[in-house]
């Protein structure tokens, strides 16, 4: 059984690496599609749902951090798995919105404009980067490799918290320009 461990580890790393590349490439490809799919007006409400998802994710990340500081591993695990599940729901909802609706241009003027674009660009770049760290952190935690989990979380947690928090800020800044 011990000889299988390195093979399983390599397979897991391969899957994590493939997903870490495939997810951002798939999102970028779908965002680049000019012909939008009409699934109905309900999809125009998805950015508002995404804002709520990012808000809840930020709270869950901070709650999970609190639980692990309190040495409540079980509550930490449940909380972080909920954050991971919400991240997955967000990704599907985000892609669905951009597959069905044109991107909303930011209408702010003056100093707020470069602030918005700085937050937006840093949010997008780090949302690509964080996928690899989060997948590794989750894998290491679920496979009982706690030392490796802690090493991955050293990067995953602050980046993920930044991405989810700036997602909310960017949403609030562009919200007045949505049709609905």
UniProtKB/TrEMBL annotation:
The chain crosses the membrane at residues 12-33, 45-68, 80-100, 115-135, 155-174. It holds the Pfam family DUF420. Keywords: Membrane, Transmembrane, Transmembrane helix. InterPro entries: DUF420. This is DUF420 domain-containing protein.
